[in-house]
Amino acid sequence: MDMSTVDMSEVRVDVWIWSVRLYKTRSAATADCRAGHIRVNGNRAKPAQSVKIGDRVVARTTAGERTVVVRRLITKRVGATVAAECLEDLTPPPPPKEERTVMPRRDPGAGRPTKRDRRQMDRLRGTDAHDSR
């Protein structure tokens, strides 16, 4: 049996989230644990905190917040297909991209916009620069 998937009761959270490919490096996983970006069962996790099968891990990564449930404990980084078997991903799918309105662009070389031009652009964007006062 492979040592990376040996049956054990607990694994460090920073090792596990790196092993299942939520983070590219173990040091990045450890740093995010220290920064409070990792939660295990709703509580902030320190890097050495243990995870068990069935624990819910929420990780705020560069790709967004990921919510996973531990299905198998591993300590070594494995292939993506094996890593996918070690977790159940509960992350909701990203919302569909809304149709963006195309903002009119000024002609190149038209110079700096006048006060009137700027106010028209603000109205189109739906913002008002004078609301902050």
Structure overview:
This protein has 133 residues and is of the alpha+beta class. The protein has a domain of 87 residues: RNA-binding S4 domain (Structural Genomics Hypothetical 15.5 Kd Protein In mrcA-pckA Intergenic Region, Chain A), CATH 3.10.290.10. Helices cover 26% and strands 19% of the residues. It contains four helices and seven strands. The strands form two sheets. The chain has a five-stranded antiparallel beta sheet with strand order 3-2-5-6-7. Strands 1-4 form a two-stranded antiparallel ribbon. A hairpin with a 2-residue loop joins strand 5 and strand 6. Helix 1 packs across helix 2. The model has no long low-confidence stretch (mean pLDDT 85).
Concise synopsis of the structure shown:
This protein is α+β, with helices and mostly antiparallel strands and 133 residues long. It is 26% helix and 19% strand.
Write the topology of this structure:
Layout: E1 11-12, H1 13-19, H2 26-35, E2 38-40, E3 43-44, E4 50-51, E5 56-61, E6 64-70, H3 80-85, E7 87-89, H4 115-125
